[in-house]
Amino acid sequence: MREREDEWTGLMRSAISGDSAAYHRLLRAVTPVLRAAARRGLARAGQPVDQSEDIVQDILLAVHLKRHTWDAEAPFAPWLFAIARNKLIDSLRRRGRRVFVNIDDFSETIPSEPAAETAPANEVAAQLQSLPARQRDVLQSIAVDCASIKETAAKFAISEGAVRVALHRGLASLTAKLRGQ
Amino acid sequence: MQTDQLIRTLAADNAHRARPVGFVLALALLSAAPVSVAMFLAALGVRPDVMTAMHNPFFDLKFVVTLTLALSAMTVSLHLSRPEASLHGWAWLLLIPAGVLVAGISGEMMLPQRLPMMTRLIGTNSRVCMTAIPLLSLPLLAAALIGLRHGAPARPAVAGAIAGLLSAGLAATLYASHCTDDSPLFVTTWYTIATALVTAIGALAGSRVLRF
Questions:
Q1: Domain range summary for chain A, segments of one domain joined by +
Q2: A1-117 and A122-181 have identical folds
Q3: Inter-CA distances, B93 with B69, B90, B143, B178, Å
């Protein structure tokens, strides 16, 4: 436990100093932990645990956009769990309201047994469609087509700087849309 | 979008560096300050006898109180802009201005006074004080909330309340240079009521706009 968290702190320090591979490894390493926490939260709130993936993506986006509030001298795990807890409570509240509003359609679709695997996330994908074309194209190119920033720039005949701006703005507006939905 | 795809996208954006919350907060406050100062100069203005008043330690004490309030609240609000932070171990900073006031009241009690205590407490400007401080603080409160929005406060209402204290402290600094009531009893009563009002507005606004 302790070792794992020290490793996260090390990876995040490398990420902050510009090592994108370390950042990628860190996000992959924390995701199973976030998923387990999301499932526990959903179970405790009496909601289907297979809906955890939307919450995980919500947390990952917040981690990304708020990482400048992490103090590089402090351990990473308490910061991460504070963000995760905040987003989890938020999501459960939002879901609670939505379930209340749609109680009739919901009761018909309750599975007799809780699904064992996790349903694919759909909130981020849905909001992606409402982004401005440039941001949506860039995000899709990098996320779905596995293109690098350079390849994306070549594909749309724009500068790498423009790709970076569209990428960041796209992620920020996705997060804002998820919060406001 | 699958989570792996999202992670790859986030990693691609690793080069983006956001500015520190303190920088954004300072920038927002510096942009709002001229608005409050302009409102102050247009509606109230510095009291005419300010040069003589500066020799009165109780006039000067008002600025010590309001500026320590603003500085303590700024320190605490920056601390609270981190998600894992709590008020624990930091709340005492907010007691410093209260301590200065208590010291001021004791000091005034020990000196012979021309006016009776209740007259000094009630003063002549209480209504202006309670209107001016909240109004002057509004642009600063909006700026403080914009700055803190850049952070990730775990408890938005608390962070908003501290932003209210911060903006009330700055607004009261302006107002103190207009007000002719210098008794710490007046300051303790009316400045506190005005500050409490701004703090409540801050908490209410914060609980809406500071969620991340």
A1: 1-117, 122-181
A2: no
A3: 9, 6, 22, 27
Q: What does the DSSP 8-state code read for residue B153? A: -
Judge whether A23 is closer than 8 Å to chain B, CB to CB.
yes
Question: Does B118 touch chain A if contact means CB atoms closer than 8 Å?
Answer: no
Structure tokens at A99: 């379930």
pTM: 0.89
Amino acid at the residue B7: I
pLDDT mean across residues, chain A: 85
The class level of CATH for A122-181 reads mainly alpha
Handedness of CA B40, B41, B42, B47 (dihedral sign): positive
- Could you tell me the sign of the dihedral formed by the alpha carbons of A115, A117, A122, A124, in that order? positive
Which tens digit of pLDDT belongs to each residue from A49-66? 888 999 999 999 999 999
| B151 contacts chain A (CB < 8 A) | yes
Q: Is B3 on the interface with A (CB under 8 A)?
A: yes
Q: A1-117 is classed in which CATH architecture?
A: Orthogonal Bundle (1.10)
Are residues B12 and A62, on separate chains, in Cβ contact within 8 Å? no
Q: Do the chains contact at B7 and A24, CB–CB below 8 Å?
A: yes
Q: Dihedral (C-alpha) B148, B152, B156, B160: value to the nearest 10 degrees?
A: -10
